[in-house]
Automatic annotation (TrEMBL):
ATP binds at G8, M9, S10, G11, A12, G13, K14, S15. Residues 1-158 form the RapZ-like N-terminal domain. This is RNase adapter RapZ. InterPro entries: P-loop_NTPase, RapZ-like, RapZ-like_N, RapZ_C. The lineage of its organism: Bacteria, Bacillati, Bacillota, Clostridia, Lachnospirales. Residues 165-284 form the RapZ C-terminal domain. Keywords: ATP-binding, GTP-binding, Nucleotide-binding.
Length: 293
């Protein structure tokens, strides 16, 4: 028997999470009235019942009944009912962008439609659920398939999950340092493939560029030291409750050296399956766009 309460910020991916859980055999109910949660939990404990896995969506749409959630959870605890809380999080900037793209109104935006104010009110009202969450996933940098992969680890493969998602991000300094970076590494000290005519149109995703960049003792030593530092920091970040770690690696244009080192670091960190990880190359195609103008 497994009961999962799916909650979190509006726009952070709860619908995607519920759909994924439904696809793997969970009985899913979205926006179930909070007072009915104990009754649903009782159904899961009926001997011989076919209903042995359920996911219950609870969020700000529950209105005033959301204030009863703390009491309901205490009631479940007293009854010895086992449950897990999955909390989906995202930054204000990303949530606002998602609302603008979908042209939806935030449930708490009010008459003036201010999404930022609605998000602020929502964070305050559901922070007690975030504190109690068993799994806290920040979807700020996640694609839908990446969120599904992380949920699959937890609810299908039953792997240990440390509530940390790592984004390795390559960028070009001439386009600015990513504002949400937690760690920034500068690899402009390495030989630049841009000055090799055959390599200039290629990127760090191409074998020839990778070999050129990594065929250098300084590059290998830097990768080893960077990997060692990040692997030291990860468990300490987890202990402090950090859920999203953005590691930015920059070169001049974000096309050759930074892409190569970002891919190498991604491969090194991917060996540990306890943490979610992705790699993104922010500026890999910007040189071509700029020149075309």
């Amino acid at each position: 028997m497994r009961c999962v309460i799916v909650t979190g910020m509006s726009g952070a991916g709860k619908s995607t999470a519920l759909k994924m859980l439904e696809d793997v055999g969970y009985f899913c109910v979205d926006n179930l009235p909070v007072p009915l949660i104990p009754k649903m939990a009782d159904l899961l404990r009926v001997p011989g019942s076919e209903l042995n896995k359920a996911a219950l969506g609870v969020d700000i749409r529950s209105g005033q009944s959301l204030t009863e959630m703390a009491r309901v959870l205490e009631e479940l605890d007293n009854a010895g009912m086992k449950y897990e809380i999955l909390f989906l999080e995202s930054t204000d900037h990303v949530l606002i962008k998602r609302y603008k793209e979908t042209r939806r109104f935030h449930p708490l935006a009010g008459n003036d439609g201010r999404v930022d104010e609605g998000i602020s009110k929502e964070r305050e009202r559901i922070k007690f659920l975030k504190k109690r969450a068993d799994y806290l996933i920040d979807t700020s940098h996640m694609l839908t398939r990446e969120l599904k992969r992380e949920l699959n680890k937890i609810f299908v493969e039953n792997k240990e999950y440390k509530n940390l998602y790592i984004s390795v991000l390559s960028f070009g300094f001439k386009y600015g340092i990513p504002p949400d970076s937690d760690l920034v590494f500068d690899v402009r000290f390495l030989p630049n493939p841009y000055y090799i005519e055959d390599l200039r149109p290629q990127s760090g995703n191409d074998r020839e560029v990778r070999e050129y960049v990594m065929n250098n003792e300084k590059a290998i030593e830097f990768l080893d030291k960077m990997t060692e530092l990040v692997e030291f920091l990860i468990p300490n970040y987890v202990q402090e409750g950090k859920t999203q770690l953005v590691i930015a690696i920059g070169c001049t244009g974000g096309k050759h050296r930074s892409v190569t080192l970002a891919n190498e670091l991604f491969e090194a960190l991917s060996k540990n399956e306890n943490y979610g990880i992705r790699v993104e190359h922010r500026d890999i195609g910007k040189d071509a766009i700029t020149k075309a103008r």
